[in-house]
Amino acid sequence: MKLDRNMNSEGKGKYALVLLRNVTTDSEEHGMVEDLAERGVVDWGNKGDDGEFFVIRLKDKYAEAALMAYANAAVDDDKEWATQVLAMATRAAHHPAKKQPD
Questions:
Q1: What is the C-alpha separation between 98 and 61, in angstroms, rounded?
Q2: How many angstroms separate the CA atoms of 95 and 61, rounded?
Q3: Where are the beta strands (DSSP E) in 1-102?
Q4: What angle do CA 49, 58, 73 make, to 5 degrees?
Q5: Residue 42: exposed, middle, or buried by beta-carbon count in 10 A (0-12, 13-18, 19+)?
Q6: Are the CB atoms for 59 and 94 separated by under 8 Å?
Q7: Distance between CA atoms of 61 and 67, rounded to whole angstroms?
Q8: Is the pTM above the cut of 0.85?
Q9: Torsion of CA 88, 58, 90, 6, to 10 degrees
Q10: CA trace torsion 13, 94, 101, 34 (10° rounding)
């Protein structure tokens, strides 16, 4: 299995992030996000739901360690997947704008 971003020519992943803290309730963007949510395009990843998620950006100063652990845990199930996650860990290690997550 490959990472979704490695399965298309654009390098796009399966999900996109919407930085909701920058969308106010009275803004035009809020209406757009709500419209997308109603059409099932936005996955809120709500706590306790089966779609709950945790996003790690490569600039997160802890991303390398987290992705390496994930790759090591996955290697017995899918070496290709683990290798691709490990490559992301390497990119995280060399990210020029590392920072504490917010």
A1: 5
A2: 9
A3: none
A4: 65
A5: middle
A6: no
A7: 11
A8: no
A9: 20
A10: -20
Q: Which residues touch 54 (CB under 8 Å, ≥6 apart)?
A: none
Q: Which amino acid is at 40?
A: G
| DSSP reduced 3-state for 5 | helix
* pLDDT tens-digit readout, 24-52: 778 887 788 788 878 877 777 888 888 88
Confidence label for 18 from pLDDT (cuts 50, 70 and 90):
confident
Phi, psi of 99 (to 5 degrees): -155, 160
Whole-number Å distance between alpha carbons of 40 and 37: 5
Using alpha carbons, select from 70, 81, 66 the residue that is nearest to residue 4.
81
Computed over its alpha carbons, how large is the radius of gyration of the chain? 16
